Amino acid sequence: MKSLICLILSVACARLMVPSAGAAAPFATISNVLFETRIQGSNSLADFQTIITPANFFWMGFQTTNELSQATNADPVLVYTISVNSLRTFITGQDINLLVEPDPRQFGPPQVIIPIMVGTEVRSSTTLRFRPGAPSGTWVTANWGQPKLIRRLMSTYQTVLASLPAGTLAFAVEIPLFDLWFVGYHDPQNQLILRSTSELPLGPITIHQHEIITEAAIERLAFEAQRYNGFPN
User: Fold this and answer.
1) CB environment 107-118: b (16+ within 10 A), e (fewer)
2) Distance between CA 114 and CA 154 in Å, rounded?
3) Is residue 233 domain-resident?
4) Is residue 89 exposed (0-12), middle (13-18) or buried (19+ Cβ within 10 Å)?
5) The total number of structural domains that make up the chain
6) Each residue of 102-142: pLDDT tens digit?
7) Is residue 232 a part of any domain in this protein?
8) N or C: which end of the chain has fewer CB within 10 A?
């Protein structure tokens, strides 16, 4: 099944904007996520720098080991999910807002990805996940690296931000089953728009990088999810 789908992704130098009324998650929720993940992201970058060696710096996205001292974090990008179960139960004509978990119009995400920059260039990333617990949970490092993913993601993310009106929140959406990533936002009618971060061939349908994911493309993904038996192909 994965042979049907061109794997995608990537993200850099992001800016998260205050969501407009009724169009995105409450600002207090998003601002708290940003505050907490910026702090943890700084700590995580310091840890990341200690594990980079001459043997792995290239695979982590850096061009030289000297770049490590110049590495900085860009703003976190919120990451939401479309699960296999959501896709399996998708019905033509359904509001695609219902696919994304949790609803970005109401809740902060369980995950963020933070671009790691050298100057203005995206080099690598840190992924943080929210770990529930008393009294209020905490953000922990889940992954480092993924240079190809973050570059593709950020290319689309920045393209989307440049076209959005002020006050519109953009975020990443992942379909873990297919290793696919999109950039999402809500239009003035509160409809969820998803844009592909890479060339996406889906049988007779092809969605190009930065293009909007059509309902026909969602239907094709739903078809593949229904065929998925839990085993690698």
Assistant:
1) ebbbbbbbbbbb
2) 10
3) no
4) middle
5) 1
6) 988 888 899 999 999 999 999 999 999 999 876 778 999 99
7) no
8) C
